[in-house]
Structure formats: structure tokens, C-alpha cells
Amino acid sequence: MKYIVYAMAAMFFLASCSKDNDETGGGNGGGGETGGVTDVTPVTSDLTVNLTTDKACYKPGETVSFTADALPAGAKVRYRTLNKVISEQAVAGSSWTWTAPETDFTGYLADVYRTKEDGTEVILGTIAVDVSSDWTRFPRYGFVATFDASKTESKIQEEMAFLNRCHINGVQFQDWHNKHHWPLGGTREHLDAVYKDIANRDIYTQSVKDYIRIQHSFGMKAMFYNLCFGALDDAAGDGVKEEWYIFKGTGHTDKDAHTLPDSWKSNIYLLDPGNAEWQAYIAQRNDDVYANLDFDGYQIDQLGNRGDRYDYKGNKVNLPKTYVSFIEAMKGKHPDKRLVMNAVSSYGASQIAGTGKVDFLYNEVWGDEADFTDLYTILKANHQYGNQALKTVFAAYMNYEKGSGEFNMPGILLTDAVMFALGGSHLELGGDHMLCSEYFPNTRLQMSDALKTAVVRYYDFMTAYQNLLRDGGEEEKVTLVCTDASKNLNLNTWPPQKSAITSFARRVNGKQVVHLLNFLSANSLSWRDLNGTMPEPRLVTKMPLKLNVAGKVSKVWVATPDAHAGASQELAFEQKDGAITFTLPSLKYWSMIVME
């Protein structure tokens, strides 16, 4: 993370799930000679029911409490894992419960629906449920960054209710600490009620405590942020030794520093993360934190490639190598606490993952990794670095050069669609605002009500279908064509192209999963959408497709966060001569087709 100053305006929001009518209907493909399906139930949606759950994730067998704002007569709720219905019940009133299945690390979708006289199912509302005993298996990371007098208990409850609705299961506390080398506000024995952060903002200790407590009530985990090697200009008085720093030259006269505005507390001076005495010192300061604040772990930060740097004795410092011993020292001091470390522009990523001590991988991506293809490259590399066991979270700052106003919804949704389809997730949601820069308290851009609604749909989708999106599988190349030339659609396989629909496919647990990503209207192949100019994609409906397949197909279904609130639709299809044909109901940003 690099600090940059912006004018900060207060901006608070509530989750808004407005009515969403998207009557795209079911597929129209005919019955096939081998394995065709003819009895597909038509599906429409009238998204008038807003649903919430009491937690962001659940342990196997735990009771899930649902709340609905309005349920019409005859409404039913069914619980699906992927496309399989595992139970169903009639619902009335405003609340009910469901016992989560005993299978661990599984995503579910609860959809409330009614059946019309003609047999058409009308989806009224949906919500995902994550049944996972360990949040780091499928991390959905959010943040909080302001802890002043405005953060009353009721305000914090409101903010965390939104993150809960998005199933955020881990929260990073940014800019919460007193000093980088002395994070606690006060001492182990006597906490300060109010102290100043690096930008001289007021931090209320009670607000920090309330955030942690309320997050825990929602089943979320709380992670405190700090650099692995930061000290302020008064650090000597707090016991930090001159011999622990890193320097720009061999004569230990020019300390490496990250400069900050004069109005802030201090510049940040950098220490050697591999110095054993510094490790012991900061581990003890962390112990002071854990003794007073119920954090679940430490989000470790760095500043990327610093060039040639030297220790006090004039030896060149290999920073990625020092990260390894730093992580190991932090884990050794607090083995029951979680660790995550930022790989800025992938710097040190392999060394961080190779420790085996971090719980998922975290990549802060910048202009040197600005393309959608870079996200793919990072995910593929992280998959290898983490021995196929660690998930990836991107810290990716959207609309970075847009000065004010609202986030550009098409840019946000296209980037989330690509990240989620490729198997990653996106650090972007805060308690009171969406992230637009590396200075997390920055609130210069706001979320529209439409974006808030869409974000809820996307996080429902990522959670409900996590076992297809983030739970392994092997990448495949597929041949997919539109059989209606009059639609004038260009389909290509990954990587994406402008003016095209790009497919990305995996085989997951015997299922062939094909993601279609809509770049037909894209003005760039960068995820950053720097100035907020990405156009809304052209909606494609009733697209006849032909897909080469190996083996007999028993079922074809589709789901998208852009229609029916993510509820799946079974499609009619025909299988013949090594291929299946079917009609895709719609493609806005992203549709996921599954062949079983």
C-alpha cells in the first residue's frame, strides 16, 4: 500500500435490492436425437422479495435464519447446490430457518419463487449461503477504514449488515493504528480512548472494538493491517534501534523512507523485515494488540520493489527473502492467528506463498498489471505458488483517475465478472463506501443504488457457485459458435478481444463449465476503467449456440448474476455428432453454462 492524500467527504450507504424485472425466459432448443431435453420449465423473474441471512457463512449443521421483507401467497423456497434441489418448503411470514447440510465447503442458493397457472416459475428473490468451517477456503474480503465519533454502534451495525448481505467473511482494518511500530493506541495496560492515526485522524478505541464484536456476530473475521517494516520518526523513543533499518546506500546514513504530507504524523521509515530483533519487537507489539483487541489475524503489507537496499552493516537486503522469515516469526509468536501478506505488483508472491503460513494470497495490482490477461496470469501463478490450495484476492482500485461522482457501473461489473469467472475475488467493499484508491478512507466516488443492487447479485453468485468458480478444476479450450449468422456475433476463446464474446472453460468435478464474458462494447481490455468510461455492454438474447463435447450430456443449465438474481435455468438441448446445440437466454456481462 502507498498512501496518497485525497479530500475526503463523508459517504454512507445502505444495501438496496430494488425491484429487478428481467423476463428473459427459458431456452428454446428442441429435443435431441441423443439426450435432448424437452420438458424444461420456463423461468421468469419479478424480484420483489429482498432476503437476508443472519451470518456471512455457516458451519456444517448450523441453523441459518432467513428474513424476507414481503412474501406473496403461495411462495415457496428451495435450496440448491449448483443446479440440484436438495430441499424445498412453503414459506409465509417474514422469517424462517433452515439447517445447513453437513457437507463442508459448499455453496448454496436459496430462491423464493411461485408457479403461475401456465406452469412458468417466477423467481421472486434469491440469496446465497456459504457452508464452510474455515473462511479462508473461499475468502470474500472487505474493509473498514474510519473509526471516529460518527461510528456509533447503530451505524456500525448498519454498515456490517450490508457486508453481511454480500457474504463478506473477512474484514481488513485499514488505517486503524496509532503508529506503524506501535500499533496499539496507548499501552497494553492502559488504552487511549482516542488517538491519532498516521493522517492525524481521530481513532476511537471503542469504535474499533465495536466493529470487531459486530463482525464476529455476523460470522466474519477481523484482520488488522500493518506494514511488515514501518516506523515513524519517534520510533527510537519507543525502543526501535537504528541497526534495524534499511538504507539506500551502504553507509547507513540514508534511511529508506516512504514520504507523506507534512500534515500527517510522520514519514514512514523502513526496517529490515528479516532482522530478528525487529521481528521480536513487532511481534510483541502485536501481542499487545491481541491482548486488548479481539482481532483474528494480521494483514501484512509491503511497498513493492524498492530497488537496491542495504542493512546497517552494508549488506544488500533481499526483501522477498526477508518476507519469509518475517511471516514465519509472526506465525511462531501467534500460531492461532491468521496471516495474509500483500504481494504488490506480484513482488515476493512466490516467496510469500511458499512459506505455507499464509491463509490465502493477496495481490495489489497496479498499472504494470493493468490488463484482464494479467489477472489470469496472476491467478495461474498463484495456483502454482500455493500448491493449488490457496485462493487469490485482488486489491484492485477501480476508476482510479475519476475525480468525483459515482463509480462507473459497467467497469465495476465487467471487472468483477472476469475476476470471479477466473476464480479470484475482489477487495472492494467497505462498511461505508467502495474502494477507489490505495488510501482506503478515500470516499471521493459513490455507489449508485443500481450498483449496490448489482453488487449484491454478484456476491450472491460468487458464493452460491463457489464450488464451480473457486474449487479447483482444469482449464479447457472449447469450440463454441453462434449458429445464427444474422446476429453478427464474434466468439473467441480466452484471452478477451474487443467487439467479441470471450469464452473461458474449465472441467470441474466431471462438469464442463463455460463462462461467456461480454466484451462486445468494451472500449478497453484493462480491468482498471481508469476514468470510468467503460460502456454498458450490449445485451444479447436468445443466442443459438453449438458446443463440441466429449461424452453423453445429461443436462445443460445456465446461471448469471445479471438475470433472475442468479437462479439457474435448465436448457433444452440436442446432442448430435459430437456437439450439443442449445439457445442461451441472455448474456449481459457474464453467463455461466454448465454441461453435466
What do you see in this structure?
By secondary structure, the protein is α/β, with parallel strands linked by helices. The protein is built from nine helices and 34 strands. The strands form eight sheets. It has an eight-stranded parallel β-sheet with strand order 9-10-13-17-18-19-20-22. Strands 24, 26, 27, 28, 30, 31 and 34 form a seven-stranded mixed β-sheet that branches. It has a five-stranded mixed β-sheet with strand order 1-8-7-4-5. A hairpin with a 2-residue loop joins strand 32 and strand 33. The radius of gyration is 25 Å and the shape is globular. Mean pLDDT is 93; it is low at 1-33.
Features:
596 residues, alpha/beta, seven-stranded mixed beta sheet, 9 helices
**Average residue pLDDT:** 93
Oligomerization state: single chain
Distance between the termini: 43 Å
User: In terms of structural class, how would the helical and strand content be classed?
Assistant: alpha/beta
Q: With helices defined by DSSP (H or I, 4 residues minimum), what is the helix count?
A: 9
Please compute the radius of gyration using only Cα atoms.
25 Å
Strand % is 25-35%
